[in-house]
User: What shape does this take?
Amino acid sequence: MRRDRTVDARTVIAACEAMLEGRYVEQLEAWGSPVPSWAWINLLAHATAEALEQAANERMPRRLRRTDVWFRARRYLAGEVLDAAAQRGTLRSVQAEILVPLELELLSRRRSRPPAPGEWAAWVMSAIERHRP
Assistant: This one.
């Protein structure tokens, strides 16, 4: 019984670390878990500038996945977040003032109909545009 708790604690810690570092989607995929629509903003809201640059320039894998459209939307938005950060001064301010609140709002909407990737991307872009200087 003690061993099961240790494994569960490690899983929880790994999930928390992934959330705080903006790697939650990748962690879920590594576990073979479904990725909820709210999770796609996690990279935008928590990643470093280097991780966002990497995401913005990420090549799509050759095999088609059900989540490819989500990756494309997130790749585009990673570049937009970096542009907004350049205009506003810091990435952390864009994340704290715009993206983390959006992430929390998406989390609170989990019981309603999840957005499609295009709808999600438009929603994120709209929030970024409303906050551009």
About this structure: The chain has one domain: 36-130.
